[in-house]
Amino acid sequence: MALRNPLEPPVLGHPLTAAPASGDTPRAEHILGHDFVRPELLREALTHRSAVIGRRLSHGRTARRTGAGSNERLEFIGDRVLGLLTAEWLAERFPTEQEGQLGPRLALLVSQPVLADIAVRLGLPAVLSVAPGESRAGVRQLATVLADAMEALIGALYLDGGLEPARCFVRRAWEATMSGLTEPPKDPKTALQEWLLGRGMDLPSYVVLSREGPPHDPVFVIGVSAAGHDGSGTAGSKRAAERLAAADLLEKLHR
């Protein structure tokens, strides 16, 4: 295993019209700063569920039911690894803060919008393997897909090389976001409620505008109204979509 310098600047994404073919594992290794001993882990981390639907497995079942070969299992592992490494980093960076202050910082750093934003900045959409139809539909740009792939890549890094390669990547890729956390962030729903109450206004009203997708991968669109303005958010869970909607409305109210 050869570990590249974790301080080396990542390869930034090019416009998708000029991007290399999906599943570009050498470029993915450069993005991660790690040469894989088990490249099959990296290929799996880059494989969206749509790319394996209908594939026959050795025991006769299809991947449509199991998701086998996609990045879902690595996403499960990477989610836990990212949480551990981020908590470790926060404890080092803010040695005087307690759980009540560190918790909101952690929640923000591992949130879907942050993961998706980092994925785009690193050029991850160009190297994901998705079904042709899903690619034409813009699946590579969905925050849910990008966030899941980021977690899967961290899971693959951990399984291939242990915590240190994963730690180096996380600290390099998340440095700008971490540096911006001068104060513990507030949950957008809490911040919106406090903003309204502080001005003697009614509490916000949330409503499900739509729910699409299969049960294993739903997409919720939530709307929120308050003070004569509306906001909306889209995510893979109602709670996450409500937070995004609240953040959207807060931004409009501040303007």
CATH homologous superfamily caption of the largest domain: Ribonuclease III domain
**CATH architecture name of the largest domain:** Orthogonal Bundle
β-strand number? 3
Spatial order of the strands forming the largest sheet: 1-2-3
Total domain modules: 2
CATH top level of the largest domain is: Mainly Alpha
What portion of the residues fall into strands of 2 or more residues?
A: 5-15%
Number of helices: 12
Low-confidence stretches: 1-22, 56-64
Question: What is the overall silhouette?
Answer: globular
**How is the quaternary structure best described?**
single chain
CATH topology name of the largest domain, in short, is Ribonuclease iii, N-terminal Endonuclease Domain, Chain A
Helical content stands at 40-55%
- Mean pLDDT score, rounded? 83
Provide a descriptive summary of the structure in words.
- The protein has about 260 residues and is mainly α.
- The chain folds into two domains: about 160 residues, Ribonuclease III domain (Ribonuclease iii, N-terminal Endonuclease Domain, Chain A, Orthogonal Bundle), CATH 1.10.1520; about 70 residues, Double Stranded RNA Binding Domain (2-Layer Sandwich), CATH 3.30.160.20.
- The protein has twelve helices and three strands; from the N terminus they run H-H-H-H-H-H-H-H-H-H-H-E-E-E-H.
- Helix 4 crosses helix 5.
